[in-house]
Write a structure and sequence with these properties.
- The chain is mainly alpha-helical.
- The protein has one domain.
- The chain contains eight helices and no strands.
- Helix 1 runs antiparallel to helix 7, helix 3 runs antiparallel to helix 4 and helix 4 packs antiparallel against helix 6.
C-alpha cells in the first residue's frame, strides 16, 4: 500500500475538505474534556488549605495561559513556514490562530484578575508575568490589526508574519519571568524537572482542562481557516464547483 502523500494537503482546496471532516471531532473532544475537567476541578478536587475555594479558578486560568503562549508559538511557526516556502496555507493558518490566541490570552488575564483579588488584595499589579502576558495580548491584537489594515493579502501576510516572529521572543519571557525576577505571581505548579506542587487530583483536573482548551483551539482554528480559504479562493474554479454542487 503506497504511503499517503501529505504534501497534497498544503493545497487550500484539499485542506478545506480535510478540515471540514476534522472539526466536529475536535469540538466533540473539547466538550467532553471540558465537562470532565470541570467536574474534577469543581467537585472532586479538595479545598486548598491556603486559598480555600478561590484556587479553583486555576482550572480555567492555567490552561488558558498555557494555550495563549503555545498558540503564539504555533502561529509564529506557520508564519515562518510561509515566509520560507511562500505557501499560502501557512499564512492562512497563522491568521486563523490569532483570534483564538487573543481570546485565551484575555481569558488568562481576566481569570488572573479574579484570582488575584482574594489572593493579593488587588485586581492587577504590574508584575513581570502579568505585564508580559498583557504584552502578548497586544501582540495578538497588533498582528490582527496590521493584517486588517493592508488590502493586499500577500503584503498583509508578510507584515503579520514579521510581527509574529519578532513577538515570539516574549513567550520565554512570560514562562521564565517568575524565575528571573522577584514577582508576586506564584511559581510553576507543573515542572519537567520536579514533582508537581499540588494534589494529584488537582493536577489531573488541570491537565484535562488543558486538553479541552487544546482541542477547542484546533477546532476553532480549522473553522476559521476554512472561512479564510473561501474568502481568498472565492474566484477559483474549485469553489465555484463546490457551491454549484451544494446548490
Amino acid at each position: 500500500m503506497s504511503s499517503l502523500n501529505w504534501y497534497k494537503y498544503s493545497s487550500p482546496a484539499t485542506f478545506y475538505g480535510l478540515a471540514g471532516k476534522m472539526i466536529p471531532w475536535f469540538y466533540g473532544a473539547a466538550a467532553l474534556f471540558c465537562v470532565a475537567g470541570l467536574y474534577i476541578g469543581l467537585f472532586l478536587a479538595p479545598t486548598d488549605f491556603q486559598q480555600s475555594e478561590a484556587y479553583r479558578i486555576i482550572f480555567i486560568h492555567v490552561p488558558a495561559a498555557w494555550m495563549s503562549m503555545f498558540i503564539y508559538v504555533v502561529m509564529a511557526f506557520w508564519a515562518a513556514l510561509g515566509l520560507a516556502f511562500n505557501t499560502r496555507l501557512s499564512f492562512m493558518m497563522a491568521s486563523a490562530l490569532a483570534p483564538t490566541g487573543a481570546m485565551l490570552t484575555f481569558v488568562s488575564l481576566w481569570t488572573g484578575a479574579l484570582w488575584g483579588k482574594p489572593t493579593w488584595g488587588a485586581w492587577w499589579v504590574w508584575d513581570a508575568r502579568l505585564t508580559s502576558e498583557l504584552i502578548l495580548f497586544f501582540l495578538y491584537l497588533g498582528f490582527m490589526a496590521l493584517q486588517a489594515a493592508i488590502d493586499d493579502p500577500r503584503r498583509a501576510d508578510r507584515a503579520g508574519a514579521l510581527i509574529a516572529l519578532v513577538g515570539v521572543v516574549n513567550v520565554p519571557i512570560i514562562y521564565f519571568s517568575v524565575r528571573w525576577w522577584n514577582t508576586l505571581h506564584q511559581g510553576a505548579s507543573v515542572s519537567m524537572t520536579k514533582a508537581p506542587s499540588m494534589a494529584s487530583i488537582m493536577l489531573v483536573g488541570m491537565l484535562v482542562m488543558a486538553l479541552a482548551a487544546w482541542m477547542y483551539a484546533i477546532a476553532a482554528a480549522l473553522s476559521r481557516a476554512r472561512s479564510i480559504i473561501l474568502e481568498r479562493e472565492k474566484n477559483s474554479q474549485w469553489v465555484a464547483q463546490m457551491v454549484e454542487a451544494e446548490a
